[in-house]
């Protein structure tokens, strides 16, 4: 094999290794971004579980999108205005609520589904969050009572 051919082969191998490094780097950046988004959404979900935030119409207004919909565990459907007023009158619980088994699944670059359980009640929760370009807003939420707790 000629020296030129060996160098050409080596060049193509190094080129593909560089491509793999670039793919790994892109993957790492994406995973870091997804982790950051998950952490932000975990924080926002925790805020919505805070009784002081729940009873503040301005705080809830900022966290819920204008087209927000919730399917309550009772089967009742809430929109943003109804939810803000209901939480203003009764934040729903006293004491801490601990999020466990939190997962975030990116549905698109601007939309993420989060699921988790509340340790104290066993309630299963799912929310869809959408970025409006400035901050994340909850578009949909559903809480489901769980017999298994």
UniProtKB/TrEMBL annotation:
InterPro entries per UniProt: DUF4440, NTF2-like_dom_sf
Domain named DUF4440: residues: 42-138
Source organism of this protein record: Pelagibius litoralis
Name of the protein: DUF4440 domain-containing protein
Database matches in SUPFAM superfamilies: NTF2-like
One matching Pfam family: DUF4440
